[in-house]
Design a protein that fits this description.
Beta Polymerase, domain 2; 3 helices
Length: about 110
């Protein structure tokens, strides 16, 4: 965000608003996690439900990048554990389920 374009600043502000974040997260929070979680909330609203879910499905058996996911979850007020789902309430009142699912290693075999 150091040299962000006006469009990027607007997009980040909108994502933060959807997720109930008062400030744009530090640069170490992955944009993809913000975007995909906000998309889940948007779709939940579109279908008139009061819950949204965003699950990362990773086939990395060593839990690569889980720490990035945990940092993202922490800014939303959640403490996550691999292969479990946590529930939290966003400031909007929407319930959000976050999870990290480790894929079966057998699907990595050729």
């Amino acid at each position: 965000m150091a040299e962000a374009s006006p469009g990027k600043i607007l997009r980040m502000a909108h994502l933060c608003e959807i997720l109930g974040l008062e400030d744009v997260p530090a640069g170490s929070i992955r944009y993809q996690l913000l975007h995909r979680t906000a998309s889940a909330v948007i779709e939940s609203r579109r279908f008139k439900t009061d819950e949204a879910a965003m699950i990362v499905h990773s086939f990395a058996q060593g839990k690569a990048w889980f720490s990035d996911f945990a940092s993202f979850a922490a800014i939303l007020g959640a403490n996550v554990v691999p292969d479990e789902v946590v529930e939290l309430d966003l400031k909007s009142g929407m319930r959000l389920r976050l999870g990290w699912a480790t894929g079966d290693a057998s699907f990595l075999e050729i």
